[in-house]
Structures are given as structure tokens and as C-alpha cells.
TrEMBL record:
<dbReference type="InterPro" id="IPR049708">
    <property type="entry name" value="PP0621-like"/>
</dbReference>
<protein>
    <recommendedName>
        <fullName>MYND finger</fullName>
    </recommendedName>
</protein>
Amino acid sequence: MFRLLFWIALITAAVWLWRRLKRPATPAQKAAPQDDPAPMVRCAQCGVHIPQLQALSADNRWYCSQAHLQQGPGNSER
């Protein structure tokens, strides 16, 4: 019985070692430094929050689209 368990353990270890050596080495994944999130602004017309880089600005107010920029501030302005 001991011989059978020994051979099963030996074969399992050999298969595990073979798979590990056959697989290409992957570089350790380093945690990428996260960039600061883009500042969000609120549309003066509809109140939707959008990234500042995508927003349109007029008179110190931010808008989500050209149509809302043309309409001006809406009821969501507080």
C-alpha cells in the first residue's frame, strides 16, 4: 500500500513540475500607480456630472453639451 501511495505522489509531482516548466515565465505583475481621477463637474442645465475635460465652459459654469451651453443655466442650478 505504501508503494502505491509513493508512486502516485511521485507521478503527481512529476506532472506538476512538467506543467510548471512548460509554461512560459510571466513577469511579476506590479501594481500600476493609479492616475488621479479626472475632476468631475456638474452641468448647469441638467445637473449631470461629467469629466471636466469633456465639459464645455461659459461664464464660470460647466455644460455637458453644446445644446445645453446655448440654453444656459437651468433649474438644476443651486
